[in-house]
Write a structure and sequence with these properties.
Length: 222
């Protein structure tokens, strides 16, 4: 039996097969998420770990090219609680209303599986609100002892949250140009057609039970 770096060929092949199986599960999860109906943040009722994608449906011209394209992927230990936190975080924002955000969620058996799927979704689709240079969309509110810290870039573009008042290294106009350039480079023409149709119909067909139905698609995760 052949040995490769202390491993037998059979054990190596087993590890490769397991890695490939994980990759397949992750890609199927992302694909299913992108085809699930959308709902409002406050309508998510799934009390389970999982993956979620956020879409913008508001009037800001900044995101016009991305209408129907996910702007953010995240993972949660409790999808309902995480969605409720986003509602609270968005309430003070000046130019984005809670109702401007739509979400698709897919429950998974473990939080570890959700983290794995989140990382793959970000690598695959490069959502603009998930980029390090625009960090802050999912950040917690700043406390009284953090007011001197630099505001997150997302909060510079979309002010209103109680964040730090430190010196901003990149101004809003520059960040907005970076957003437009990123979206033009990463959103394929016509890629949002499916979601644009769903968004135009609001939350029709995407009630609170929609996310829970997705778990049946992935019995092999367990």
């Amino acid at each position: 039996m052949w040995m490769i770096a202390g491993m037998t060929t059979s054990s190596l092949l087993q590890e490769l097969a397991e890695a490939w199986d994980l990759r397949t599960k992750v890609m199927l999860t992302i694909d299913a998420l992108l085809h699930l109906p959308l709902c409002r943040l406050g309508e998510v009722e799934t009390r389970a770990p999982g993956l979620y994608a956020h879409y913008y449906r508001g009037p800001l011209a900044l995101y016009e090219v991305a209408m129907g394209w996910p702007l953010y992927f995240g993972s949660a230990k409790d999808l309902r609680e995480r969605s409720r936190r986003y509602v609270r975080q968005l309430l003070p924002v000046h130019e984005i209303d809670v109702d401007d955000i739509r979400v698709a969620v897919i429950p998974l058996p473990t939080y570890a599986a959700a983290l794995c799927a989140e990382r793959a979704a970000i690598d695959l689709m490069a959502p603009v609100w998930g980029q390090s240079w625009l960090a802050g969309y999912g950040s917690k509110h700043y406390g009284r002892n953090r007011t001197r810290q630099t505001p997150p870039p997302w909060c510079v573009v979309h002010p209103g949250r109680p964040v730090g008042d430190g010196v901003v290294p990149v101004d809003r106009a520059t960040l907005e140009r970076m957003i437009v350039d990123h979206l033009r480079a990463t959103v394929p023409p016509g890629a949002g057609d499916l979601r644009r149709d769903l968004l135009s119909r609001g939350a029709a067909g995407s009630g609170p039970g929609a996310a829970g139905q997705a778990l049946a698609l992935f019995p092999s995760w367990a």
